Amino acid sequence: MTAGTNPYTDPTARRAFLDREARLRQLPPVERDFVRLGEMPDLNRWLEQVRATGGCAEPVYLAGHTTTLDADTGEVLRHYSTATEPGGRLVVRCRNRRASRCAPCSREHSGDTFHLVRSGLVGGKGVPETVRTHPRLFVTLTAPSFGPVHRAGDCHLARRRRCEHGSRQGCGRTHLVADPLVGQPLCTDCYDYPGHVLWNAMAPALWKAFRDNLYHHLAARAGVARSEVRTLVRVSAAKVAEYQKRGAVHFHAVVRLDGPDGPSVPPPSWATGDLLLKAVRSAAAAVALPCPDPVACGGGRLSFGTQLDVHPLINGEGGRISDDAVAAYVAKYTSKSVEAAGAVDRRIESLVEIRALRVSPHVRALITTAWRIGGLPELQHLRLRAWAHMLGYRGHCLTKTRDYSTTYGQLRGARAEHARGLYVGWDDETVVEGAWRFAGTGHTPAEALIATGIAEDLATNRDIVRAEQVRERP
Ligand SMILES: [Zn+2]
Ligand SMILES: [Zn+2]
Ligand SMILES: [Zn+2]
Fold it and tell me: Which ligand is the nearest neighbour of the Cα of 173?
């Protein structure tokens, strides 16, 4: 600072500085924040960082360094430190897949899901293209009924019958799909709330039982020994969990048959699409797990609902559903999650909090039930209180078998954050050293507005590119 401009030594500079501070204090907080940002010496680098996160709404800040050394000589090959970054920290994405939490990260996650599912169908991203010729099905597994609910379309099935509480089995009206009544119970006294919550909680176990059954049913249909079948054929699958309007989880899955060593090997000739289709049907119908709370389920067993959709994905012309459509369909669900059923996207801490939630009476009853039975000692292993906001389901939104296709991690690996070397590890030639610490999260008000603008620009650009691709098609 030269003499005459230093407010500590120069009275004129001091007056100018104090006047400016007083003017700033009168500005609304957001505008004051904009002035602060505008004066940031490394504003351009900050903008570059925010652009690299795609305009993430809830970024995470990290501070630290990574050094890559030659394993033999100890020579420094690469060094990255946040010391020279704005604020001495690096901005990274929150990676939340929920659109309600972070729209830009949710969009990116959907895109990754699309590629992950698609490569398992048609190859690419490390999967051989010959998987197109393997038997492949698109399967939807649903939950059973826990009591009559309002249905989209004509809601008057068996309307004459009444339950013991005097409620009809349908309301007699015609509901649009978007009608908030759809999925709401016709009689809350009849509705099996504990059974519903326990089914959601056990859904991952039901899926696992289905996959195990599938091997047994393939073996039985092919006339091969159960102990032998896994050495002949491999079931690869990717599934996504979706909440129906009534708040029950159901699964959309791509199921593919591979040879014993995975996608690069075709399955044996007896393992046809037709055999797989029949085995999927009987394997799903045979799933029956003991209910973790015999009182709640009336001594019954947990099974899939009778509504089971199985569609073959046929290679090339004549396929009724295109591979891209299936991948897009599955990807869509990873950003919607539980909010689609009108539930909430964060954990619940107390019963008082449940009463204050802005949700339908049905969702409140499901969450309250999860909280209540979650206190039972024999159900502790289901962690129902921690997953009450998910209506009992604690599985991941998307899961896949190891051989189905690439992973989210591998897809992200191609992108910038990984390139900066944000991990500590080694291979034969190099040693990576690093020390990182969490340095905060979130945006200030002005930063949030700029990030939103960046995210919208990126979304618009992508839409334009997509529209052009469509136009270029013959
Ligand atoms: Zn984000
Ligand atoms: Zn109705
Ligand atoms: Zn009733």
Answer: 2
* pTM of the shown model: 0.77
Residues with CB under 5 A from ligand 2 (ion): 150, 155, 171
Share the mean pLDDT of the chain.
85
Ligand 3 centroid to 186 CA: how many Å?
8
- Å from CA of 238 to ligand 2 middle: 34
Distance 375 CA to ligand 3 centre (A): 26
Alpha carbon distance 147, 129 (integer Å): 45
Least reliable range by pLDDT among 214-218, 324-328, 455-459: 324-328
Say yes or no: 310 and 199 in one domain.
yes
Q: What is the pLDDT of residue 418?
A: 44
385 and 325 in a single domain? The answer is: yes
Q: How far is the CA of 40 from the centre of ligand 3 (A)?
A: 65
Q: What confidence tens digit (pLDDT) does each residue in 234-249 have?
A: 999 998 888 888 999 9
Give per-residue pLDDT as tens, 19-32.
888 888 888 888 88
Answer yes or no: do 252 and 286 share one domain: yes
| Structural domain that includes position 35 | 21-98+416-472
Stretch 289-318: mean pLDDT: 79
* 168 domain residue, yes or no: no
Residue linked to tokens 């700033």: 24
Distance (Å) from CA 295 to ligand 3 centroid: 19
Which residues make Cβ contacts (< 8 Å) with residue 316, sequence separation at least 6?
Answer: 132
For ligand 2, the distance from its centroid to the CA atom of residue 173, given in whole angstroms, is: 6
Q: In the prediction, which pLDDT does 112 show? A: 85
Considering the domain architecture, whether residues 205 and 316 belong to the same structural domain is answered as yes
d(Cα 443, Cα 446) in Å, to the nearest integer?
8
- Domain shared by 91 and 140, yes or no: no
Q: How far apart are CA 466 and CA 326, in angstroms?
A: 18
Q: Which ligand is nearest to the CA of 103?
A: 1
Q: Give residue 52 CA to ligand 1 midpoint distance, Å.
A: 11
In this structure, are residues 364 and 304 in contact, taking their beta carbons and an 8 Å threshold? no
**What separation in Å is there between the alpha carbon of 157 and the centre of ligand 3?**
16
Examine the domain organization and report whether 370 and 466 are in the same domain.
no
Distance 367 CA to ligand 3 centre (A): 20
Total domains present in the chain: 2
302/352 same-domain check: yes
Task: Find the 93 Cα to ligand 1 centroid distance in Å.
Answer: 5
* 360 Cα to the center of ligand 2, angstroms: 15
DSSP sequence for 149-187: B--SEE--TTTT-B-TTS-BS--SSEE-TT-TTTT-BS-
CA-to-CA dists, residue 443 to 64, 98, 104, angstroms? 20, 18, 14
**pLDDT tens-digit readout, 150-159:** 988 888 766 5
